[in-house]
Amino acid sequence: MANKKAPAAGWPVANGEYVVGNPESCVAVVTLGSHGLDQAAIDAGAAISGPCHTENLGIEKVVANYISNPNIRFMIIAGSEVQGHITGQCLKALYENGIGDDGGIIGAKGAIPFMENVGKEPVGRFQKQIVECVNLIDVEDKGKITEAIKNCISKDPGALEEDAMVVELEGGKKVAGEDSTTIKPTSPEMALLEARMRIISEKMNEAAMVAKFNSGYYNGKIQGIAIGLFLSILVFSLL
Predict the structure, then answer these.
(1) Which residue ranges make up each domain of the chain?
(2) What distance, in Å, lies between the first and last C-alpha atoms of the chain?
(3) Residues placed in the known binding site for 5-hydroxybenzimidazolylcob(I)amide
(4) Numbered residues of the known binding site
(5) pLDDT digits (tens, 9 = 90+) for 80-125
(6) Amino acid 181: pLDDT
(7) Where would you find the membrane-spanning parts of this chain (predicted)?
């Protein structure tokens, strides 16, 4: 039987919209923007299952709840992708690439993929603890999600050797021994606005590039005609 450890007191440590199952299970499920999948995931054997709508504070809560339970070794990302935030891709990028010195998730494509309250140490622990990230983004089939959960449970490596790590998001502290910090959560509305502004900016840049190309092409065409005409006159004058 796989070795198990006690999660942090009061686990899950970060509040949110989730359903909790057996805390000794090795599987946790993120259902992104979908609803109605969480209880099925718990019934299949997951330790915790819940949606994640934002690519900043939402992902921070996922990390906080996972690393505070060393029994969780598999993460399944399922459900419909959150438009604008692209939370599933950002969470997968966090697991694969970590964060930069500015707190940004490396390789993330969301609107504001920054970890303002979770530093490199907790992210590193998250990457070490999760041995496999199962990508079921845009999958809402409960049968497929159940199958993935049971497959992970069959490969349970046991709890991570290290004890639970607690990140107190609401209290404004990162981890024990670190300086306190003020939480600056980004609302979904603000993140969506930022995403739309970025899309508009990209479209404007694309339009400017097209206009620049067309202008260059037109000018080049005129110059070509002028040069051709000049050469033709020069040739005929020499005959």
Answers:
(1) 19-183, 187-239
(2) 99
(3) 85
(4) 85
(5) 999 999 999 999 999 999 999 999 999 999 999 999 999 999 999 9
(6) 33
(7) 222-238
Helix (H) or strand (E) holding 132: strand 132-137
Residues near 13 by beta carbon (within 8 Å), at least 6 away in sequence: 64, 65, 68, 166, 167, 168
**Chain segment 209-238, per-residue pLDDT in tens:** 666 666 666 666 677 777 777 777 766 666
Domain range 19-183, CATH class: alpha beta
- Residue 168: pLDDT band (50, 70, 90) is confident
- The 132-137 sheet, strands edge to edge: 19-20, 48-50, 27-30, 74-79, 132-137
**pLDDT reported for residue 176:** 38
> Is the full-model pTM beyond 0.90?
no
- What's the rounded Cα separation, in Å, for the pair 170 and 220? 61
Token code pair at residue 150: 């049971």
Q: 79 by DSSP, 3-state: which? A: strand
CB 123 within 8 A of CB 98: yes
For 37, the 3-state DSSP assignment is coil
